[in-house]
Fold this sequence. Notes:
Number of strands: 15
Strand order of the largest sheet: 1-15-14-13-4-5-6-7-8-9-12-11-10
Strand content: 15-25%
CATH architecture: Alpha-Beta Barrel
Number of helices: 10
Amino acid sequence: MSLSLGFPTIRRDSAAIPSTIGRPDAPGLIDRHGRTARDLRISVTEKCSLRCTYCMPEAGLPAIARRDLLDPTEIARLVGIAVRDLGVRDIRFTGGEPLMRSDLSEIISLSSAVAGGASLSMTTNGIGLNKRVDELVAAGLTRLNISLDTVDRDHFARLTRRDRLPSVFAGIEAAKKAGVAPLKINAVLMRDTLGGAADLLEWSLANGAKLRFIEQMPLDADEAWARDNMVDAAELLDVLSTRFTLTQPHRDDPSDPAEEWLVDGHSYDGRPATVGIIASVTRSFCAACDRTRVTAEGTVRSCLFGDDETDLRALLREGTPDATIAEWWRAAMWGKQKGHGMERADFQRPLRSMGAIGG
């Protein structure tokens, strides 16, 4: 198989901002379908220390030249524009694996200085976190999402193609000692690890972590995803219910992709314990999506499954004023597609894999 980072359609062919015909005169990142993006996911690298089968090819993704990555100052400038001019309230740094950036603390520090009241979080696999979490928190990191699909070492090694589970546990322990809260665990639902789902929930409850299971989406670089083989939310609930009594509470925030279930008889920090399920495929939340994404190369991707991208890196390096960059960003989001379309017979997976887009 020929591996690539994907070749989306890049909107930057002329100096003209893409059409926004019909768009109301509003400062936020609104789209044609009545949604407003307030959650920014910004990838800082395509590199990763693991090779999870649902994300990365075994050899890893082709390297992005350092000159083609956004530098800390450029990332912080986009964070500032997003918060100040576009109404973004949450920023999450993703990869690849963000900890692969040696200048990650600088990225967070510069971003924190312009983020106002917006939260700064990071999605990580936790490897090496024990050596860096204190400096990251000092730089302004407020929350962590740690990817952990199983607490069985053999299953972990098969799924990630690396025997690094003890390193992940070390990172989680360090995050707890650093006082990062809430500590969230993300687990992708896989057929191979479904039998250990209850064990993972039990471990999360014992360690004061908030666990969320995620249905696997067709974003793997190996293109092995098949709907008939995926584990859906209903099957997971059946498995968890053999050991736990789950009660679904009211869903307060419709833009939150996770459906939260109370775990009867368990609590942490004096509050009822919950487990979340993000049913991206079978219970789509596209209608309430509030995300905007920036790839490691500095392109805006309005939808995880949309291949149109708008190049902000070129604008940054041409000395374009912040106000104009904000207009390009608004135009990119105005054209956001209605949904991922996985329910349609003619659905086509995006050209980029998750590792190349950013989680």
